[in-house]
Design goal:
The structure holds two protein chains of two kinds. Chain A is built from eight helices and no strands. Chain A is mainly alpha-helical. Chain A has two domains: about 90 residues, Rna Polymerase Sigma Factor, Chain: A (Orthogonal Bundle), CATH 1.10.1740; about 70 residues, Winged helix-like DNA-binding domain superfamily/Winged helix DNA-binding domain (Arc Repressor Mutant, subunit A, Orthogonal Bundle), CATH 1.10.10. Chain B is built from seven helices and 17 strands. Classes of the chains: A mainly alpha, B alpha+beta.
């Protein structure tokens, strides 16, 4: 859905426009929010953040932001609000954090450059390796170990019995470990 | 199995986030709730509320229900363990216990080992507490296996149950961008979903778990157009239809001579039966020389005392020597397959065994149970565990070398995270 289509639909029915936009971009917004908050918040915190993001998008998006593709706008709003939630959660847990959280990519030394570059490469290798498992195993791995979903929830998503999910998961992990070892990646590195 | 950690994916670049997007959907109920929250917050923004942005983020998330499946277990229960082809547990002192079948690979002769405690014990005498015999369990499995095969949704597509040249309905799925065809089921025993469930209620503890069915009000299938989950069966206009392109989850090996058949986790009202057959090329993808097909079915007695199917799992593949000799079911433990507990019991057993051996030089047996609370004076061993009150306890059947009793607590990933020692 383009920005223009959204605004046209908004004039006819706010409810339908919001539902359509929500449905289309939910996974994208959730990926951003979860990626930022996973280490500091609960699922409830992530849901809170997602609802704030969409509320802000519904409230803010207008003709002045309309350049066709809505994804860049939505991405920026999602990242900003996710960072706000991250800071808020970190404050509540008394952990220290960098004031320049959103500019953490401004690195000050060559050593940091290497470290960040290595992490980027490791992420890419990890995602490549997970994709090599094929479906539904790659979905099971991400849902279970990244999104912390239970076997029953994964089963409903994939139309599988929970017991089948558990069994496939166990074998997928073994296979993933084997793939990573062949690529020279030790488990402690990820 | 150690927990897989994917923390390196946190705070990743846009390209990694884009790769995570396909995995980032949620169930309809959650999305509906979050959309409602968004609309509520939008209304506040539109009212020009003077509250700050943080205050707008009001907690409106419903409380998640914690599982409450606690089953108390008496530590003072005495056990009789009979080794051999079948693991059996007698009921003593009026208390039911479950125990992992800890086979001694070098001892194939049937032996009887009694573990006594300070509490006076008596053998079970009532019919209600009697364990099923091997013959009874095998007969139950043989009787219900054809029902299990028949009930698999894929098998509704056989010619004698569905007229494959008959009536169909087509779902134009916008989500998958393809047409999905459903064939009308022609089985005289049932026409509606309620009929289907009522019929299979004779054989399944909860048949609703075995049929992924959506009942549509009216006769408009297009309501499913944007659904990301395609049901196997739909009820439309009061009639049942089956998805034409279903795959079989459980290949029919009833005519194939089994390599082994064995019962696990036997109690007076439940048992798990595992049947191993040589793998066949059921799906046309070829099979390896040493591949096996393992079918596990868990049976449970209903309120009237009739054996029914609780759950099942089938798996085809290769198994290591260690797995084949472990004494545990090859597909893992399905017993207590509660929809809420979801604990990796095999991993838990292995970790508990390793921990007890390394910390206390304990190599005896365990009694296991589930709990949603820590006992008094429990010591936390590690903070790296799933703290959701969905736990398992492993109690050492024998005393430790210093005469104390050890209880271990494990989370849903099988991580030993706490212990309690009593003297």
């Amino acid at each position: 859905m383009t920005g223009g289509e959204y605004l046209d639909l908004l004039e006819k029915s706010q409810k339908k426009a919001h539902e359509k936009l929500f449905e289309e971009y939910y996974s994208y917004v959730r990926a951003i929010a979860y990626n930022r908050l996973r280490s500091v918040g609960t699922n409830e915190d992530v849901e809170e953040c997602i609802s704030d993001i969409f509320a802000r998008i519904f409230f803010t998006f207008g003709e002045k932001y309309n350049n066709g593709d809505m994804k860049p706008f939505i991405g920026v709003v999602a990242k900003r609000i996710s960072i706000d939630h991250y800071r808020s959660l970190m404050r509540h847990t008394d952990k220290t954090f960098s004031i320049d959280e959103d500019t953490s990519r401004e690195l000050s030394s060559d050593e940091d450059l290497v470290s960040e570059s290595e992490r980027t490469e490791l992420r890419r290798i990890l995602m490549d390796s997970i994709n090599l498992l094929g479906e539904p195993d790659s979905t099971i791995i991400i849902q279970k170990y990244y999104y912390a979903k239970r076997s029953q929830q994964i089963g409903e998503l994939l139309s599988m019995k929970p017991s089948t999910v558990r069994m496939r998961c166990k074998r997928a992990v073994e296979k993933l470990r084997s793939i990573l070892v062949k690529r020279g990646i030790k488990e402690e590195m990820i | 199995m150690k927990d897989l950690k994917l923390g390196i994916l946190d705070r990743a670049d846009d390209d990694i986030i884009d790769r995570l997007v396909p995995f980032s959907s949620d169930d309809k109920k959650t999305k509906k709730r979050i959309l409602a929250m968004s609309e509520k917050k939008l209304a506040e923004l539109q009212r020009g509320s003077e509250t700050t942005e943080n205050e707008i983020s009001v907690r409106g998330v419903e409380q998640y229900r914690r599982p409450m499946w606690y089953k108390p277990l008496s530590i003072a229960a005495a056990l009789v363990f009979i080794a051999g082809g079948v693991g059996m547990f007698t009921l003593l002192n009026g208390t039911k216990v479950n125990q992992f079948n800890d086979h001694d690979q070098n001892n194939v002769a049937a032996t009887t080992e009694a573990v006594t405690t300070e509490v006076q014990t008596t053998e079970a005498t009532t019919d209600a507490e009697a364990l099923p015999t091997e013959e009874e369990m095998k007969a139950t499995f043989d009787r219900l296996l054809p029902v299990l095969y028949e009930s698999e949704s894929y098998n509704f597509l056989s010619m004698d149950r569905t007229d494959l040249s008959g009536e169909t309905v087509t779902l134009n799925s916008a989500y998958f961008n393809e047409d999905i065809v459903y064939e009308k089921i022609g089985d005289d025993r049932f026409t509606s979903y309620n009929d289907l469930i009522e019929y299979y209620n004779q054989y399944f503890i909860d048949p609703t778990r075995d049929f992924y069915c959506k009942v549509l009000e009216g006769d408009d299938i297009s309501v499913l157009a944007n659904d990301e989950n395609i049901p196997d069966v739909i009820e439309l206009g009061g009639e049942l239809y089956i998805h034409r392109n279903l795959k079989s989850w459980i290949p029919d090996h009833s005519d194939i001579e089994p390599i082994s058949e064995k019962a696990y986790f036997v109690s007076s009202d439940s048992f798990q039966w595992e049947r191993v057959t040589p793998a066949q090329d059921d799906y046309g993808y070829g099979v390896g020389e040493n591949d096996l097909t393992v079918l596990d079915v868990v049976f449970q007695k209903d309120d009237d005392g009739a054996w029914k199917i609780l759950t099942s799992i089938e798996f085809t593949g290769q198994f290591s020597e260690e797995e084949l000799n472990s004494g545990l079911p090859l597909t893992g433990s399905l017993i207590h397959p509660s929809e809420t507990n979801d604990i990796d019991t095999n991993e838990a057993y292995i970790n508990a065994k390793e921990y007890a051996k390394s910390e206390y030089d304990y190599t005896g047996k365990f009694v296991w149970d589930y709990t949603d609370e820590l006992y008094e004076d429990t010591e936390i061993i590690t903070d790296d565990y799933v703290n959701n009150n969905n736990w398992m306890t492993c109690t050492c059947s024998d005393l430790l070398h210093d005469g104390s009793c050890l209880i271990l607590f494990l989370d849903e990933n099988g991580t030993v995270f706490a212990q309690k020692i009593t003297h």
